[in-house]
Recover the amino acids of this structure.
DNA sequence: ACCTGAACACCGTTCAAGT
DNA sequence: ACCTGAACACCGTTCAAGT
């Protein structure tokens, strides 16, 4: 027993993160276990606790990386469109991302912190950055609107797209199939934005 | 050991169901365990398996009852309104229901069948009945619309309301707080239906 | 017929002991 | 300094044995 030093501290950390990510994409949250991660990386379970505080800490780190990847995908959506079209393209990019990482994405909803543990501030920031992208386009679309109105619209759209992808991913409320997701998202955005801009009241 | 017959078979079944429901509302899915249920009802773990096939079977039964309760709540929404207003009232009833049973409701998304197990047909039927209520009002609202268009609109609304409640319940994507949910749902329905009816293209 | 409780194959996490 | 592996307190599920 004792030191092996086959991997540096950073290599080991990365090995744990990639192996865990693979494990989740393979088996879902249900198949996730500290002992299984240890088996996959060829270390004892105890080693994980030298690198991460606990499994929550490890999973939260993976979730943060996932949010970063999503942010990159959304920022990559070309700017040279009208706001309405760009919002649709952002939504499509979101859809593609969740489609490519379904189990990892589900992690964000299904994994809860153990009682007492708080969600770190950097996590909240990442989320708000994602919403900011939507808010920017909405401001372009309805220039006269108040901040509150834009914020509300961004959350409604975000939640709506989330709801559609969520229902198409979850088995239990699957009145929506995966194939339906894209047209439903288009329908939501077209009609919601239509109602937003064609306002008479 | 051996027979006790303090409870009849039906009493025991009901005892398990109510205790498990309470346990879930207390501790969430994470705190759910066969051994903890057994402790709470004062029977050995093995007894659970005389009544239910396994924990999945038990949980699915609870979920079915939950869907029945929701169906009752939605059907209880008064009919004497215009479709637009009735849809808003149905959504509000939905919101109230999820607010009153947050952890149980989350069960529907967070609890997955073990690999290989299928979701029973009665479960799907309950879901479709809920959607049918929304489809009926939409048909009244846009009488000329095709079946496909109504179905699509019903799913978009359903998913949208689900997304809002889901985000307000989940800790991990909580850019939406619980207080926000009702106004966001109103906003969604008003603008989406506005876009649906004010169609020019 | 009904219920138990030991048994089996698992968990997350800690920490003394080894190199 | 780094890593192990036994230990502790848990799991879900099965099934022979008891009344």
């Amino acid at each position: 027993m004792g030191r092996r030093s086959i991997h540096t501290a950073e290599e080991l950390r990365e090995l744990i993160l990639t192996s865990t990510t693979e494990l989740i994409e393979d088996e879902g949250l249900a198949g996730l276990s500290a002992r299984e991660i240890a088996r996959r990386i060829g270390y004892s379970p105890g080693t994980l606790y030298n690198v991460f505080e606990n499994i929550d800490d490890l999973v939260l780190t993976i979730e943060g990386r996932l949010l970063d990847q999503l942010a990159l995908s959304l920022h990559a959506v070309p700017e040279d469109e009208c706001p309405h079209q760009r919002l649709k393209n952002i939504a499509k990019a979101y859809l593609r991302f969740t489609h490519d990482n379904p189990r990892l994405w589900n992690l964000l909803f299904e994994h809860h912190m153990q009682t007492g543990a708080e969600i770190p501030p950097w996590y909240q920031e990442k989320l708000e950055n994602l919403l900011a992208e939507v808010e920017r386009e909405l401001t372009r679309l309805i220039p006269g609107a108040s901040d509150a109105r834009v914020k509300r619209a961004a959350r409604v759209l975000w939640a709506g797209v989330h709801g559609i992808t969520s229902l198409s991913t979850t088995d239990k409320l699957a009145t929506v199939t995966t194939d339906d997701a894209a047209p439903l998202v288009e329908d939501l955005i077209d009609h919601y934005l239509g109602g937003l801009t064609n306002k008479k009241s």
User: Anything to note?
Assistant: Chain A touches chain B through 48 residues (CB under 8 Å). Chain A has two domains: 1-52, 55-198.
